[in-house]
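Marked as duplicate of an earlier ticket. Keeping the data here for the record.
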Amino acid sequence: MSTVPLQIVYVLTNPAMPGLVKIGKTTQEEVDLRMKQLFSTGVPVPFECAFACRVPDASVVEKALHHAFGQIRINPTREFFRIEPERVIAILRLLHVEDVTEQLEKSIESDATQADLQAAAQLKKSRRPRMDFVELGVPIGSVLFYRDGIAQATVASSKSVIFEGSECSLTMATRKVQGKPEDYPLQPAPYWTYSGNTLKEIYDNVYIVESEE
């Protein structure tokens, strides 16, 4: 009696493609092969695994995610989406899936040379990091106020907030306040304040100070 291979859905990012997420699937038996294939498709540095999980039917889950985020898909023949990885991960966690992120991350690292990993690290270092509330000294549970006080959001994690009863990125909360579509490009930091300063002012102060040390 043959056994069904354990199926995996993954969420990948790449330092060379900021703002994009790859949503795909594989089986546990083919993880190493699949990760090698991804790095041999012309990308300059390895992918990073934001999240990976075992699911009963990877094809069904992958198709549902691709359909849900279809409007922000870059190319209908490619699995890339302009979206924050946290949004995809939040949906997958609702399925109470088994987290195998570490397994995929190890597979990626084992296939990459030290030069590959150093190039990726250097590429990430050359860009200022994504906004992290905790690193900026904004504790979880803090209340952020939209300019002019017309809205507020509560910090839920290092990279998400509770806005209008739902957890989302601050970017998504800003789009909702402004009535913009889900794929509308914007930077939320200038619009929100904490302790009298905009998040942009706090961010710039933290990373300017770090760069001078």
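See parent ticket for discussion. Confidence is low (pLDDT under 50) at residues 209-213.
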